[in-house]
Every structure is written in C-alpha cells, then in structure tokens.
From TrEMBL, chains A, B:
<feature type="compositionally biased region" description="Acidic residues">
    <location>
        <begin position="230"/>
        <end position="277"/>
    </location>
</feature>
<protein>
    <recommendedName>
        <fullName>Protein SET</fullName>
    </recommendedName>
</protein>
<comment type="similarity">
    <text>Belongs to the nucleosome assembly protein (NAP) family.</text>
</comment>
<dbReference type="GO" id="GO:0005634">
    <property type="term" value="C:nucleus"/>
</dbReference>
<dbReference type="InterPro" id="IPR037231">
    <property type="entry name" value="NAP-like_sf"/>
</dbReference>
<dbReference type="Pfam" id="PF00956">
    <property type="entry name" value="NAP"/>
</dbReference>
<dbReference type="GO" id="GO:0006334">
    <property type="term" value="P:nucleosome assembly"/>
</dbReference>
<feature type="region of interest" description="Disordered">
    <location>
        <begin position="1"/>
        <end position="33"/>
    </location>
</feature>
<dbReference type="InterPro" id="IPR002164">
    <property type="entry name" value="NAP_family"/>
</dbReference>
<feature type="region of interest" description="Disordered">
    <location>
        <begin position="223"/>
        <end position="277"/>
    </location>
</feature>
Amino acid sequence: MATNGSGSPAKKIKKMELGSNGEATEEDPETQKTLEEIDKCQNEIDALNEKASEEILGIERNYNRLKKPHFEKRNDIIKKIPNFWVTTFVNHPQLSPLIDDEEVDCLQYITKIEVEDFENIKFGFKINFYFEEGNPYIENEVLTKEFSMGNNGEHKSTSTTISWKKDQNLCQKKKKDAKPTNSRKRGFEEQKKFFDWFADNEDPQGDDIADIIKDDIWPNPLQYYLVPDVDGDENGMEDEGESEGEEGEGGDDDDIGDEEEIEGEEGDEGEEGEEDE
Amino acid sequence: MATNGSGSPAKKIKKMELGSNGEATEEDPETQKTLEEIDKCQNEIDALNEKASEEILGIERNYNRLKKPHFEKRNDIIKKIPNFWVTTFVNHPQLSPLIDDEEVDCLQYITKIEVEDFENIKFGFKINFYFEEGNPYIENEVLTKEFSMGNNGEHKSTSTTISWKKDQNLCQKKKKDAKPTNSRKRGFEEQKKFFDWFADNEDPQGDDIADIIKDDIWPNPLQYYLVPDVDGDENGMEDEGESEGEEGEGGDDDDIGDEEEIEGEEGDEGEEGEEDE
C-alpha cells in the first residue's frame, strides 16, 4: 500500500489513477480487473439497498392505510371548529406571508383538507382543499393539486382549474391591483400568493409550499392552530425556546388535555426521505 | 362553517381563535373540548408514526447486517488498489479543497475505511480510518471518529487522539506555517483541513464532512475514484450533464464491466432521514 507516489500532490495521484483522457478503460489490465470486482460488489450492495427500500415503502404504505381512518376522524372533528384551516395557515410562519387579506376571506370557506400519498408513495401525492358550498368565491367543491413523478424520474404537478365566481378571481384581481396603483398597505404584492402557488405548475420539483402543507401542517395542524406566528403579532407568546435542538415537528408541547405524551416524529421523517426522489 | 368573521383580516382570525394572552385554555368550553378531541386523535396518529418508525429502523438494521459482509469484501478488494481512498477523497468535489498536499501524503497510508451504524442506527455511527503500519506520520493503527445522540437528544462526537510521529503533527504544522509567512500557493490556509475536522468535536451536529463520507462516499466510493473533481483539473471530463434531474447519488454511470445496472439509491435515503434526529 501507498508505496508509489509518496510525496506527490493531489494532481499526481489523479493522473496516476486515470488514463490521459480520464477513461477508466485505460487502467492497466490488473487494476481494471480489480475495479470490476469492486463494481460487482457494489452492485450487490445496491441490490440490497433496493430491497431495503422496497420493504420500507411497504411499511409506509401499510401505515398510511392504518393512519387514514384517524386522519378522516380528525377532519370530522376539525369541521366543528370554524376557520380551523385558515387560522392554521395564517399562523404558520412560512405560509403566513403568502396569504393576503382577500385570500384569507376566501380560505375561510375551506371545510376540509386531505393529503393523500399515492399507493406507491414514492410516485407522488395530492392535496385536496374542500370548499364550503355556496361560498362567494369558488364554484368547485374541491381543489386538488397533485405532484407526481413518472417512471423516467420526471416531476410534474397539476391542479384543478379554479372556477371563480363572478368578479372574484383573486389571481386576476391581484394582477390588476398591483400594476396601476401602489395602494395596498402590506407591501408584498410582488410575492407569490396562495392561489398563484395553487395554479402554477411550472416548477413542480422542490415545491416548498406543498412540502410545508404535506410534511409540516398535515402531520400536526393543531400546533399551528394553537400557536400563532409570533413574528409581528401582539400576543407575546413564549413558545420558541422550547423546541430547540428538535427538528420542529413535535407539537407535543401544545398539550391541551391530559392525554399521554407520545413522540411520533420519526415516522414522518422516513417518508420524507423517500419522496424527494 | 365560516359564518362568522367573513371579511376579517388575518389578525382578527387569530384573535378570534385565541384568548387575549394566547392561551388555549381560554377557549370557550365547547371549542376546548373539540380541541382535546383533535389532540387525542393526533396522539393516535403519532403512535402509529412511532410504530412505523420502529419497523423501518428494524429493516434498516437488518439490511445493515446483510450489507456488512459485502462492505468487508469491498474493502478487501479495494486494498489491492494503491491510493484508492486518498484518490477518492481528493476527487470528491467537496472534500477536495479540505485536503492539503501534506495531508494527501499522509492519507495515502489509509488502507481501509469503515462506516458503521450503531446497532440502533438512530443513535449514531462511527467512521474508522485504518493506517498502514510503519507509515511516517501516525502511530495509531486506526483513527475513529464517532457521532452519537444521547437519549436526551443531545448530539456529541468523539475522536481518537492522534499519536503523531516526531515532527509530523499536521495540525500543528499548519498552524505554524499559516501565521508567520504567506508562502503557501493554494491560498486556502484559513479553511479547516482534514485532520482539523477529525480532531474537532466542538460542533457535532450537522457535520457536513462526516455526512459526505457516510452518505456519499461510503455507499459508492468507486464513482469518485473513477471520476475526478472536474473543477480545476486539466482532464476535460464530460460527466456532469448526465446526472441532471437526479439527486446526485447514482454512480451507475460509471460502468466498468458489463454488470447489470441496478439502481439502489432509495435504500440509503431512508437511512439518512432517520439520522438527522
């Protein structure tokens, strides 16, 4: 080991190991054979990784099935609380700046949200926003935004075409408002708003907003419903220091009743890893 | 639903849902009871997440055991190739700038690397660097750097105290060199170097270098051995464009022999998710 090249800088080593044009095939036959052995070994490791991955997906699929009735039950209970979802959104530190006043009005009519993984969870998920019938903004009963990955690894997203009621198209209104005058008070007209995000399917990969809804709000909305965005709010809440060192998924701090505390962060992390693919 | 507060801005909604000092306990009794129901439901979901997490950890533990002999075999084959590990490190785009010329000399004497997860993989891992006996730099046969997490969630790292041979302490040498003169050519004296990283256990959380070795190099070192860091090298390699749209874990492009191509990325991702805790 390390008998040749002693004292050589990085570049010498690179050259030593690679042919003049960097092709592995220009290694000497002995080294070439050894590299092929390593590669073969690597393929065995990769095959085991793939099997592990399949089994993990199976578990996640199974637990998604087991969790589903609980999510449905949770949705039924949530319906009893007016404005639960819009409050949760508005209280979320990253979603809050995304939602302007008129959108808050509209989002009040959300009665139910569902986040559903595909049966093969690594191929995508969809978010359903249900709207109260007879609301003044939207005709659709449900707006769905779906993120999927094809077999070729290509990411795409699609979303329901929103059927706005007369003169209520919030996407168009904003555009109109933003251009001629500068009369809006909040000063974030340029930022993408909630319904712009919903309608925009140009860049489906790494959609932060979808990830927040799917991986942060949906797993535990109550923590945001109860704890408003401290930033810029007059309520001097002291919740921030407590979650130090954690990944911010907990929500166990928000004990309301005297139910047992259960830490359930890890299950979600496993899922997150898979869907980034 | 959404019958009250129509037209109210975000702040009104926040106030409506929260007592004057933001305490959940100041909700009206009916809402309070409903929130407790949601919380109870949430606990059931969290318990399922925890069970899923346990099962996933079990699978990862099992496959770690199955992969171990293959990693050992791979290490045995790698030993036949001089400078395999130092070349791999020097070719890695993120590790390359970390390793100065003298360290390259020293790292040539690495004969074996091992990355070992703890039996309960979410509690940590260690990296072993084996050095050739009789090398001019280091007395230790093996240098180990270990990252662990206590039951309280606290991260820590420890590393073997390096027993440098006479006048070969590369950490001290660098400090001496760097201060009085400015004669080194590369101009990255200020940057932390490999052995500084090894010895430094001040900030064990989110150690990028450990993560690169564990999650990028160790799963497939061959891809870096064969494909040098294109940046700043005179070999005009054309490997970059091929991995577009992928997460950069592949390595399957580097086919040497005619072994079957197996995609094995996902298994590793599942593991990564768990260890960030």
